[in-house]
Amino acid sequence: MGYTSVRGGLDAIHHAEQLIERTVQRARSSIDPAQIQSFFGLALDRVMSEGSLYDPELAAIALQQAEGDIIEAVILMRSFRSTLPRVGYSFAARIDEQRVHRRVSAAYRDIPGGQVLGCTRDYTLRLLGMPVDPLDDIQDQDVPGASPAFPTVIDFLRREGLMAEPPPESPEENPADITREPLRIPAPRSARLQILARGESGAVLSLAYGALRGYGLAHPYVGEIRSGPVPVSISHPVTGRRARIGWLPVTEAHMVFPGSGSLSSDAADMSVGFGISTGRDERKAISMGIIDENLTRAEGKTPGSPIEDQEYVLHHIDSVEASGFVEHLKLPHYVTFQSQLHQSRRITELVKASRAND
Amino acid sequence: MTSVRQLVQDAGVSASAYSYGFLDETAKREIRRKTLKAIAIPGYQVPFGSREMPVSRGWGTGGMQLTLSLVGPDDVVKVIDQGDDAGVNAANIRRLVERTTGLSTTLETAMASIIQSRHRIPEEALRSDQILVLQVPVPEPLRNVERRVSAARVMHAERDYSKMWLALYEDIVRRGEVSFGAGYPVMVHGRYIMAPSPIPRWDIPLLNQSDALYLFGAGREKRIYAVPPHTSVEPLQFDDYPFAVEDFDGKSCARCGANDTFLEESISEVGMPRFRCSDTAHCDKVLESREVGT
Fold first, then answer.
1. For the segment B18-69, what is each residue's pLDDT rounded down to a tens digit?
2. Which of A93, A134, A346, B109 is deepest in the core (most CB within 10 A)?
């Protein structure tokens, strides 16, 4: 009997695969991954961000293979990532070398370098099917490319002594690598930032919203949010010189949190939460910045809510881990349930017996 | 009613697919009734069936629902964001009002019958025939001392504000003074503590015994509340630590020269920061009168 059950299982798996394959093949005949790359850029940003692998072509293939399910596409990216060796580490990217496509501050109206609204849906009316007001004088050259220097806004707050100095960790030191070492709580900030950066967008958003709504630090300010490619450099394996190997589009959020100043310490009143995502996922970058600072301020304290608890946040926002365990419930649990039935029946009888004795 | 497909086909020409003021009539009726209730109980947060609006929740949807349920053919609407008529969010909301009502809008405070604002009360005194609609991110003034909405409602009902007073006291002990900047909590008509929305301290005295009606709309949090005309509104304060507004210490607007308005500073890489009026319409008006005068 065991034998037929195994064979039957394999047949069923094959059939399920065929059904998926039929759908995906049909999709491939009408859309090719290049079209997905040009039409679904923001979806691919999520696939790459959560997949922690920057490759738009692979992300497009993954999204198609997953029928648009982002978490499934992330699983494909992550499992492919496992096949790649860790060759080395880049230098810390320098944000002042970013080619800024969009950059806004919500703290100041006028900032050096100016506000650059760029490509954003923020101020569009979300009316289904309603096209935007036509504007025919917009040219491709109006889209900012290589840009002048944009000094970071928080540096001005630092200069005035209102903002805490950056943490002393040297950026040259190799950071923690969460893909090579298991997480230990309390986790160093570099590990926290890595987990947050590849955390599931919805989970990160939801935790950040909870924090903002009263379960964490009070309302922060977007000191600055900036988008655009940054150069990635490594130490040349032969010459040892700094060598640029490419550009990575990122969105960075500097979340300014006041409230640290007190009569009994020298702490600056403001500190910054840092968020980053690949591509243009601003929602994720801002959410990450909120969680980062909530975790930093809660360090060494008894957590009062989930957002202040490293255990809670860092263990539960990874889409591969979370979806895997939640969906494992679909696996056969025949034996476990059988054992459970025994226990439940036994307890029900005991309860009845004790009632009868009353 | 035109279908969405039709809208796409004729490139949005048939904007009439949407109701006057975007919301359907039953929604508007509900919002008006809840607004009347809010006016009848000054400072009390009235829950309402907040609708999804064509901007993100938290971007002024509460204010938009109030404005769009109030407007009629004779109204003139002004929309400001942080004092600025030209702010991107203000421009966007103004566009929605124009597009769904066909009404004309204004930049002049005195011309408007309904002013929707985010985080500012205009410098120019409002009249009894004007309504100021304020957008509210967090309607619950007790949020920082009680994060659960259900518990905060009980505290309001029992007028149990001890936690709030204690928090203010602790703030003074720890930091030297009450650290609320914008959104300073106020007591309305001696009964309810109310979140005035994140207006600067500067604007708080304008709420007290005003000629105009103030309405507050929190779309995401689904609450409407009001300060009717001639109602007492007092900032929470201790006798020995009185409330004070922002001090601009002899600074004046670099544009119009006013030294009696709420100023915004900008960062510059060299020299002193520059200041200018946050209320741009008022700044224009002062500038104009100076030019006429010379």
1. 789 999 999 999 999 999 999 999 999 999 999 999 888 888 999 999 999 9
2. B109
Residue A48 CA to residue A88 CA, distance in Å, equals: 20
- Look at A125 and B96 and tell me if their CB atoms are within 8 Å: yes
Task: Please tell me the distance from the alpha carbon of residue B51 to that of residue B44, in angstroms, as a whole number.
Answer: 20
Angle formed at CA B50 by CA B46 and CA B52, multiple of 5 degrees = 165
Question: Contact A161/A268 with Cβ under 8 angstroms?
Answer: yes
Minimal-distance CA residue of chain A relative to B139: A213
Cα of A181 vs its chain's centroid, Å? 19
What whole-number distance in Å separates Cα of residue A196 and Cα of residue A200?
8
- Complete DSSP assignment for A114-135: --B--S-STTS---TTPPPPP-
Q: Which neighbouring-strand residues pair with B134?
A: B117, B216
Active site positions of B, annotated: 43, 253, 256, 277, 283
How far is the first Cα of chain B from the last one, in angstroms, to the nearest whole number?
Answer: 56
Query: Vertex B123, ends B121 and B109: CA angle to 5°?
Result: 80
Cis peptide before B273 (omega within 30 of 0): no
Are A48 and A284 within 8 A, CB to CB?
no
Read off the tokens for B45: 């947060």
Question: Which residues in chain A belong to E strands, given as ranges?
Answer: 102-104, 221-235, 242-257, 271-278
Tell me which residue has tokens 């009997």: A1
CATH of domain B4-138+201-235: 3.40.50.11310
Of A110, A215, A262, the CB nearest to B266: A110
Q: Yes or no: say if B224 and B216 are a contact pair by the CB < 8 Å rule.
A: yes
Record: contact A125-B56, CB cut-off 8 A: no
pLDDT higher at B124 or A358: B124
> In this structure, what DSSP letter does residue A150 have?
-
CA dihedral A200, A201, A202, A208 (to 10 degrees): 110
Query: Look-up: residue for tokens 């939460």?
Result: A273
Query: Is the separation of the CB atoms in B86 and A115 below 8 Å?
Result: no
Q: Which amino acid is at A271?
A: S
DSSP code of residue A317: -
Domain ranges for chain B, please list them: 4-138+201-235, 247-294
pTM (2 d.p.): 0.88
Residues 6+ apart with CB under 8 A from A121: none
- What gap in Å lies between CA A128 and CA B1, rounded to an integer? 14
